[in-house]
Amino acid sequence: MAQGETQPRAGCMEAVTGAERFYRDSTERFQYLELRFNKIVRLAATLIYILQTILYTGIVVYAPSLALNQVTGFDLWGSVAATGIVCTFYCTLGGLKAVVWTDAFQMIVMVAGFLTVLIRGTSLNGGPTKVWEDAHEGSRLNIFDFDADPLRRHTIWTIVIGGTFTWLGIYGVNQSTIQRCISCKSEKHAKLALYLNLLGLWTVLACAVFCGLVMYSHYKSCDPWTADFISAPDQLMPYFVMDIFSSMPGVPGLFVACAFSGTLSTVAASINALATVTFEDLVKKGFPNLSEKMSTWISKGLCVLYGVLCTSMAAAASLMGGVVQASLSIHGMCGGPMLGLFTLGIVFPCANWKGALGGLLAGITLAFWAGTGSFIYPAPPTKSIPLQLSTLNCTLANGTASLTTAAPTAAPERPLLADTWYSLSYLYFSAIGCLGCAIIGLLISYITGPTKGEDIPPVLIKPVCNLLFFWSERLKTLLWCGVRHDSLEIDFEKKLPKVTANKAFKNSINKETHCQISGYNPEEKSYTNMSRESRL
User: How many alpha carbons fall within 13 Å on the CB side of residue 205?
Assistant: First the structure.
């Protein structure tokens, strides 16, 4: 519950702040990196994002296929292929509009499925009070575990610190999120959409947590995974659904629809974002004079290509262990360094392109070193599964023989780092990548010559020092590092890099709007997406 309530909120706040940076006449966030640094940094970030999204989407496609296999016996890989085909089909034909509207419908289906399982499971296990008592007796409500050991998978520190960095990367700099924001009518609407998203996320996380408590109450004396009734922990929920709804044919289908709704939503958004980034950063750069018709066909072709790649990546996802841990690990390993890169650009005026590129590579190296090692050499059970799982009342299929515990086998040899660096909680991968990128980036920037604040347009920098030192104008000005945040008139055409062929940055700046770009609405104090308005 702590992770579900604290980290998404922090990520949403970062996304709201980021909306002010990205909300220009733009279709994707990497244009900011070219304006702030150069094309090389933008290209490096694009390639990392493509890698991250393909890996993550493979996991998302694989997860509900496990559920369908458990509930219906349908072939696992046939389900994977069907999921990929459906997502690719409606994303290719409908574009972002199809993604947004299907997301809204799928959210309703997901919550309905959760509530059905919650109500039925709670009633079969003696009501909410009994479920809560069982969870308390089994130490499942020990939320405030202040163990400082970074090797423990879930403690208050891993959730608050590591989880915050992870969700900042997901909400603050992820193209799928930013793309939804800039599709809104104005910056004000984008912020409102993010706050509503936060409420929806809290709802889904709360349902998932309480479903877990109900499952523990139901299986506290016979854990199906430990008893080998299921082959993976990710099959526990569908196994539970089949168990409690065995006398109600057809109802398990609602759960399958619930699981697939989340997948269709995420996969379609990811494919659309991948196609957008690739077209804007790679295709358009190489072929700037493409006609609108040809651009449309290329975008649709990219959707098909990425649909095939993401579906194929599900095979690798089957080797990564639990889907929740694997997906957040991927977000941490790739999203953490990306968060560090944008932090360098938005917060630190002194950072130059060499520091940004070097920091990004250093952050990716550190995060992938820790993450890949954790996949190869998983943490010992004492760190990853510290709570007891009972099989006391389990019986074999014939119902006569009690389940026996297999004799322990000799543990395989593990390298020195396996029980230290490789056993770090997966929630810390994002923090490692982000901090590594920011620290190394600043060091390289100072060694190679920091960027002068006077040369950076204020619109590209967020003066966070204004919030921390609001009481001292002199101190705030000092910490601006030369950036002219107090200027009433700035010639952006001269100050921005040559890439500012973008029309949004060419417009003259009105003194009365205090250096705001075209599309600024002084009454709402927000920007209007001019490209969207022209399309409407």
Answer: 16
Q: What backbone torsions phi and psi does residue 206 show, to the nearest 5 degrees?
A: -65, -40
> Residue 29: what pLDDT?
67
Which amino acid makes up residue 476? K
Q: Confidence band (pLDDT; 50, 70, 90) for 22?
A: low
Among residues 38, 237, 205, 219, the alpha carbon closest in space to that of 138 is found at: 219
Tell me the pTM.
0.78
The residue whose two tokens read 């496990």 is: 66
Provide CB contacts within 8 A for 240, sequence distance 6+: 117, 121, 215, 218, 219
Contact 54, 306 (CB under 8 A): yes
DSSP secondary structure code for residue 527 in this structure: E
CB 4 within 8 A of CB 328: no
User: How does pLDDT run across 180-231, given as a tens digit for each residue?
Assistant: 777 777 778 888 888 888 888 888 889 889 999 999 999 988 888 888 888 7
Residue 277 falls inside a structural domain: yes
The identity of residue 132, as a single letter, is W
In a domain, 401, yes or no: no
Please give the structure tokens belonging to residue 436. Answer: 């590594």
Is-contact 161 508, C-beta < 8 A?
Answer: no
Distance CA(377)–CA(369), nearest Å, equals 12
Q: Closest Cα partner for 212 from 83, 121, 137, 94?
A: 121
- Domain limits at 273? 27-321
Look at residues 52, 169, 63, 55 and name the one whose alpha carbon lies nearest to residue 428. 169
Rounded to an integer, what distance in angstroms lies between the CA atom of residue 374 and that of residue 335? 17
Sign of the C-alpha dihedral computed for residues 327, 195, 486 and 509 taken in this order: positive
Q: State how far the alpha carbon of 266 is from the alpha carbons of 127, 137, 224, 517, in Å.
A: 34, 36, 29, 33
334 secondary structure, DSSP code: I
In Å, how far from its chain's centre is CA 290?
33
Q: Is 266 a member of any domain?
A: yes
Does residue 475 belong to any structural domain of this protein?
Answer: no
pLDDT(360) > 90: yes
User: Are 128 and 214 within 8 A, CB to CB?
Assistant: no
pLDDT at 416: 82
Identify the CATH number of the domain in which residue 202 sits.
Answer: 1.20.1730.10
Cβ–Cβ under 8 Å, residues 50 and 274 = yes
Q: Measured between alpha carbons, how far apart are the two ends of the chain, in Å?
A: 42
Both tokens of 461, joined, read 């920098």
Q: How many domains does the chain have?
A: 1
- Please identify which residue in the block is written with the tokens 């030369």: 482
**Residue at token pair 């279709």:** 27
Question: Tens digits of per-residue pLDDT, 309-349?
Answer: 988 888 777 777 778 888 889 989 999 999 999 999 988 98
Q: CA 206, 211, 217: angle at the middle one, nearest 5?
A: 130
